[in-house]
């Protein structure tokens, strides 16, 4: 059955037909996604605008109930949802279950609680003398967070559950309405999310989903006059174009953009811990994740051992069908992206980097696979060191002194998440303060899901996750009164 658009609480036939969603592992068609016309995207934004007044006045307890009920539906349908996510994204079965669908449900649970968080902050009273503004008096004040309005959520292809849920759930919790424009490669899971929300009782127009394989649908979702805010996860280049449109309309932005995470590994580091963390770049989403520690900056004393251990780690990873038990490295999202990653591998060779592991296309018959690839003897000026590859490719740059290591880590257009491995935790925390990144992992790649997430420099604008997401989807209003 062909997937239809979700606009104003109705399932709507697309004006411009359908396009194929392809399984990156088998190259077979998973399903047909609808091609929305620009007019249909505008209609979705208009439906969200019409629904905003009622939803923004809905009691927080009711918003919480609906978000909780949506999480119930997602958990009930977890197996078919995970199977679809695996097929359209190329994630392994374990990742689709645990890091996509399960995290999506958890985020709806989190923001069901978030809907009940206080939105008022009392400010100290101020004593004003008599003057042009009126008589003397004591003035009280509140800072109150209010919903922004209609939010366009443009989501990434690497996680078709966690990323959309991380936008939609806090936006709804704060009383906003949304237009969701999923990535064209794997949009079908987001329609399942819309079904879960509809079953949970979300009113018509509060959630709308539109798709398209061409840029027009996304452009309309950004430039619509009914849209007050755009939340985008994707490349820096696309984010810049969105920001230009938002700037002309003075629309709020939340931008989660690219990354080229530096992993500073010092001579006193636990190398096995560092290898485990860095090695996830080879496997987790096949390197298609902006937080990956893809740029290893290794102190001379452990450089050769670290390279040797990383090469051994990459060589032990099973690459193949993500539906098969034991597979660690699945495909990248598309043939075009595989070609892009392979072009960077060839570029690394030409730039003079030493290929230590990988570099050849796995002989698997079908599917868009890239072998886990490791380059050593890299320098900071190489494009493979400076540019986001978004694939299972790790580059290693040596350094001598602490100051040199910090300078190399900061010598990047990006600043999303960096990492420090050192046996001296006090030094690691001190170095974290020198790194120009939105997050720093100390001896770990783990995340605290209440900690703010976002980037410095070309890695983004704003912060979300935890209560920070509720703030991101809010406007602050001052209320002042005489005492």
From TrEMBL:
This is Aldehyde dehydrogenase family protein. It comes from Streptomyces achmelvichensis. The lineage of its organism: Bacteria, Bacillati, Actinomycetota, Actinomycetes, Kitasatosporales.
